[in-house]
Amino acid sequence: MSASDESLQLTATDLRMATFRLARRLRCARAVDAMSDAQLAVLATLSMHGRRTLTALAERERVTAPSMTSTVNGLEEQGYVVRTPDAEDRRRVQVDITEAGAEIVAQTIRRRDELLAEMLGELDFTEEELAVLRAASALMRKVVEP
Questions:
Q1: What distance in Å separates the CA atoms of residue 18 and residue 145, rounded to the nearest whole number?
Q2: Arithmetic mean of pLDDT, 140-146
Q3: What is the pLDDT of residues 66-84, one digit of tens each?
Q4: pLDDT cut 90: percent of the chain above it
Q5: What's the CATH code, domain 5-144?
Q6: What span, in angstroms and rounded, lies between the C-alpha atoms of 107 and 29?
Q7: Which of 18, 91, 97, 122 has a CB 3.0–4.6 Å from the CB of 101, allowing a cystine?
Q8: Is 70 within 8 Å of 45 (Cβ atoms)?
């Protein structure tokens, strides 16, 4: 049996609002305060998916190629990424994360997980409620992952 359109709409609204508020709180926790959300997103993409072209990064982050070039330039200046010529097409450039960039991603993930654990701990959830949250997170991943 399928959910009703009204139920889907109400759930979408509630989920959107809760997700945005949670994301806003978590974005404050990062390893480098001066790093933009866009820069951190690029580092996270490279950390999770490996080497990418500027074009592929721009498409993934839904920004223009010049905007991604600017973002990568900043990351490169800080030593968080390196550019290498593509082996098959010398006109193309591949972007790789450095060890320093990978450490920024790892530290940021740790800080965000710690912050969320503190937030959950302050609310004195029961084990059953925490199990519901874990089940809900699995359903949320199902919505966003192909």
A1: 19
A2: 87
A3: 999 999 999 999 999 999 9
A4: 79
A5: 1.10.10.10
A6: 10
A7: 97
A8: no
